[in-house]
Amino acid sequence: MSRILLAVLVVLAVPAVLVGYILLVETIVVRLGRKVAARIRPWLWLGPALIFLGVFLVYPTVATFRRSFQNRRGDAYNGFENYKWFFTRDDTLIALRNNVLWVVFLTGGVVVLGLLVAVLADRVKYERVVKSVIFLPMAISFVAAAVIWRLVYDLNPIVGTLNAVGGVVDAGPIAWLSTESINNFMLIIVGVWMLTGFAMVILSAGLKGIPTELIEAARIDGATELQVFRKISLPLLAPTTAVVATTVIIFALKTFDIVYVMTNGNFGTEVMANRMLKELFTNGQEGRSAAVAVVLLLTTIPVMAYNVRKFRQQEAER
Amino acid sequence: MTQVPVLVEPEIEAEHERPHKRRIRGPLHFALIAIMVLWAIPAIGLLVASFRTARATNGSGWWTALVPPYQFTFSNYDYVLNRAGFWESFLNSMLITIPATVLVVLIAAFAAYAFAWMDFPLRNVLFVVVVGLLVVPLQVTLIPVLSLFRDFQIGDFKLNGTVLVVWLAHTGYGLPFAVYLLRNYMGALPKSIFESAAIDGAGPATAFFRLVIPMSVPALASLVIFQFLWVWNDLLIALVYLGPQPDNHPLSVTLANLTTNFGGNWQFVTAAAFVSMIVPIVVFFSLQRYFIRGITGGAVKG
Predict the structure, then answer these.
(1) Which of A150, A157, B32, B216 is packed most tightly, with the most Cβ within 10 A?
(2) Structural domain for B50, as ranges
């Protein structure tokens, strides 16, 4: 019972403390005069976020960066040894290649399908039903998703859904997860299944933010639905689409759970995050593991550069 | 314009339907239903498997169970629901997820507002760092953070192993995405509303709570959905920060412990998946009403 009481107390206290913090900040800042206030106000609003990020993400990242230049035991620096190891081996480069596949096809699939569902469902009465069905996989845990997709991909046509369908059209059973030319795509399909709901929810929220007057005006002017979509909805959704694409690209780079539970990186399906964990826990190579993490971080630079440019534009247009 | 935007009634939506839209209805319904079927099939397979014994699922396809003779069983659900500690861990999940969601949403909203509408040196650099942190794999942060907290103790209170540390960890890990999403949405709000608010003598706090928050409701609702879902389904952070003591374990950990180390008992995972899905789905349904056109009063330029 004390636990329930604690729960209620916490649910009320946490927002109260946070709102109280901002109100307190503003009461104090206002007394300091305009100039000083403008200079320190942003830092006080950012403060809580920066503290959390510093402790849980920045500090460990800096530690990882340092560790990537050290030897296995971590008692001496060994220059670029760990990076040389990463870039001169076939198996690590396969992991890098697979991450590229994930970035291209997961992002493409999720963004296109998410946009399609958000836009199409917006026009029908059963929108909530459609969105709920597409959202459902997001709520399923990875362990359960692995169970069900193993049933879908099972080699035995008596149990495996795909091979049973293949049996009907007289195609021989295919080993979906161990045939090297297709298995990466089979894993990416699982990712698309799980993440399309994510893109759909955010894009749908963006779509609802487009002023109705704009679309109505275009329709009155005789624009077809396709023209309305291409000339109005799509350009206005571009910033939201960029957010979704950036986030999915980063998910793709971090891909771990699906690969870990379904193939554990065997049959040429290795990805960097899984490799990193193997080096850390199975091989005890903390330095190499750190180097893989740093390479992963560096691959996001182009995406980040694109985002900075976008935000500059947004501010210039105000 | 300092007034809170009015929610447009859904009925107005219906009036916007125009006759000439009916022409393209056929392919539209077909495409939507096809996508729904494709998405539902794996989930239906999982649902059917959750009502079958392990032997039945291993011996024949799940679709064969859909025709008579029916051999469904509740034994998987019975096992999951009546396990010792099930309801305690359900409550623990709530106790972990709700504060962790509130913390992320509010703290990220403060930061996003500062990034979008305040001027300070290094703003863009700092923002890129925040978004860049999205890519840091959780697993690399665990060892440094754990050793940081290991020695943290005030009197008898130890941080490691408490629910508090799980809230803090989820907040830290959830912030990059939350700040990114909200900053993008808030940055697109029209400048004029802030100018008129300032003319009316409203300070940043008033503008934030009275204008920015109500106008960002669709973005906030999607953030709540995802953060809630991620924390609710999280296994790694709970395992690492709470340790082996079962008292504070959330549902995800208790249900993951159903399977043996050798991957046995996986049939219980199917039932467990549906049991633990209920709460996030309820959250999703109850927040769907905020995804209504016109909630921003037409003030957002997209």
Answers:
(1) B216
(2) 27-73
pLDDT the model gives residue B259: 67
The answer to whether residue A201 scores a pLDDT higher than 70 is yes
Element (H, E) at A169: none
Q: Which residues contact B198 (CB under 8 A, 6 or more apart)?
A: B207
Please write the tens of the pLDDT for every residue from A83-110: 999 999 988 999 999 999 999 999 999 9
Q: How many domains does chain B have?
A: 2
List for chain A the helix, strand, coil content (%; round to 5): 80, 0, 20
Q: A58, A132, A141: which to substitute to probe chain B, counting the most B Cβ within 10 Å?
A: A141
pLDDT digits 0-9 by tens, A136-160: 888 887 777 877 888 888 888 877 8
- Structural domain tally of chain A? 2
Touching A: B residues 35-94, CB under 8 Å: 35-36, 39-43, 45-46, 49, 57-63, 91, 94
DSSP element (H, E) containing B202: none
- ipTM associated with this complex: 0.83
Residue B238 forms contact with A (CB below 8 Å): no
Which residues of chain B does A241 touch, with a Cβ-Cβ cutoff of 8 Å?
none
Q: Nearest chain A Cα to B112, which residue?
A: A46
CA torsion angle B57 B60 B61 B64 (round to 10): -110
Residues B65 and B128 in one domain: no
Chain B residue numbers with beta carbons less than 8 Å from the beta carbon of A300 are 132, 134-135
- Whether residues B45 and A143 touch (CB distance < 8 A) is answered with no
Q: Is B292 left (phi over 0), alpha (psi -120 to 50) or beta?
A: beta
Q: Are residues B148 and B69 in the same domain?
A: no
A56 interface with B at CB cutoff 8 Å: yes
Q: What is the band of A224 on the pLDDT scale with cuts at 50, 70, 90?
A: confident
Helix, strand, or coil (residue B157): strand
By residue range, what is the domain housing residue A48? 2-67
Query: What pLDDT was estimated at residue B190?
Result: 82
Tokens 């839209």 label which residue?
Answer: B21
Any B CB within 8 A of A148 CB: yes
